[in-house]
Amino acid sequence: MSWPSNSGPTKTERAAWRDRYGETDAAAGIETTGAFEPFSQRNDIFTRAFWDPSVRSRQTDAFFASYRMQASYRKGDGFRQRDFALRNASWLISDIISNRSAEQGRREGFQAPIACDTPVAEAREDIDNPTAMATEIKRIARFFGGDLAGITDFDPRWLYTARVDTRDFSEADHDLPEGLTSVIVLGHQMDRDLVATYPSALAGAATGREYSHEAAIVLQLAAYIRNLGYQAVPSMNDTGLVIPYAVKAGLGEYARNQMVITPEYGPRLRFSKIFTNLPLAHDAPRKLGVAAFCNQCSECADACPVRALPFGAPAESAPDNMSAIRGVRKWTSDASACFGYWAKLQSDCAICMRVCPFNRDFSNFRNRLWLKLALGRWRRWALWWDKRSDRAKRMKPRDWWRPEE
Fold first, then answer.
1. CA-to-CA distance for 193 and 392, rounded, in angstroms?
2. 205-223 pLDDT tens trace
3. Does residue 266 contact residue 360 with C-beta atoms inside 8 Å?
4. Reduced to 3 states, what is the DSSP secondary structure of residue 152?
5. Which helix (H) or strand (E) element contains residue 321?
């Protein structure tokens, strides 16, 4: 399925969405307006870097090429040969999956759903208790290596209008099976010490490792479901916007830094998803208190070297921001400025993740106490406490390589 070409949702569709999703949207802190339109993935900043001359440059081409074989290294700490070598090695499994159907224009996991080699079993397991089945799916997700799992409704609003054919960057049909009812959302924790070295090529290994983990985990979990006789489409950055699905699945709350803050790992997660018709109970979204904290905190926006993150209250995106979804009142970044800095670095930047006050080790009692304060009425005191700590101090990449020193 895909959205009809050159047409947005009708008034009838919008009214039906309000009736169906209004209550859970409010619980999740999601606010859509009458201008809402599903997003075209062709317009995300990474895809635009291949077809849009206003984004593409020698620098952006070099950025993507550097993930295959870095030809030029730097003397600067965090950008040496070993730093790029670890980063690129961490992406290997993800790259194998995403490149295997390149000749068909399918970059699996990024601009197209991941093809699952496991056929759907002809015999179907009888599921008479969706709540018990949901518990089982989360257990199996943890068995395969997922750190968090939540389940929400198959909400068509967050599907991209189409997938992208990477041969010419035209739009193509998703080819999703009919009758999908649920989205299983998985969270994958990024290495805390590597995150502490942002911005660096070394820190990019924290991102790549989780994409490789995601690729394996969603394929295995989808294969389990398909062996039960149900449809399952494994997905990473492709097919739909994962953040609203993660929020609606009760995993966390959206923040100023454009990330989902979870009480288990703060912002230090990548998310993947599986679309399925397996009978599953859905989790309830929850307002944790993150938005209230972000309304008083601008640590991420203050630290952004290119001022790509917003100050002030959530708002609808500017009409000229092509890489932002229309008709959602939220904090929205300047994706062009952000990606321009990534290209300059020749690696991803997540300074906003590193400096976020929720970027803590919540196995530590003091940090759990801080979290309780931050999500409650004492949030101003929690912010004051954070500003006077060295929690967000950058780790020198050479110290990550030589921890014994």
1. 11
2. 999 999 999 999 999 999 9
3. yes
4. strand
5. none
